Amino acid sequence: MPRAGVRSGWTGTRAGRSGGRGRRVWCAALLCAGLTALSACSDAGEPAGAAESAASTGTPSAPQPTPTPSSSPPSASPSASVSLSPRAAVTGWFTSGGEDQLVDVMGVAADVQARHERDALIIDFTGLFDTVHAAQKYAPIPDRATQTAWKTALQQLNNGAGDVYNASALGRGTEDDPKSREQIDHGWKEFGEGVKGLKALQTRLHRAFDLDLRTDPWADPT
Q1: pLDDT at 82
Q2: What are the C-alpha distances in Å from 117 to residues 59, 72, 113, 178?
Q3: Relative to the CA of 192, which of 50, 65, 84, 141 has its CA 20 to 30 Å away?
């Protein structure tokens, strides 16, 4: 009998240990099942595209903007400048103030030339210089050959009158001095070339561009 008791006690202790081990295995199984369920829920909540992108690159990709069609095609802008023909350009210069410059210069040059031909000893060139300088500062004629003739005539008038003035009594020169006399003669010659240039310019404007002055500056006022 004592043996049976001992065996019985040993058997009970072993059974108790088996029972405890069984409960631990069962708890571990429940814990694993819970973790598996949580992982499944987490994976189910993430978009498939984001999960794949994160798995491949490690960072989510930014969404690409969708291009929108243009409402209307751009229209071509017209040319900013319109080229004029030489005739139209010169006519525009003539009618917008150029004729006034021509009339003023030719008028004062004709007056000075007439005084010289009457053997006037003292001639005031102030009006001539002011008029010529104003014309030189004015806009050029938009035709190369015509502008060259105009510029040359203005320079000859200015230089010729300047030589005469500097060698005369007004310029504190002495007309009796041979050098002064020579300078005066040279000045009048160059001035005369300028007058010829103005007349040739007037003829060119008429023939090439059909432009005529409103008055004849070379007409004898008497």
Answers
A1: 58
A2: 102, 76, 6, 21
A3: 141
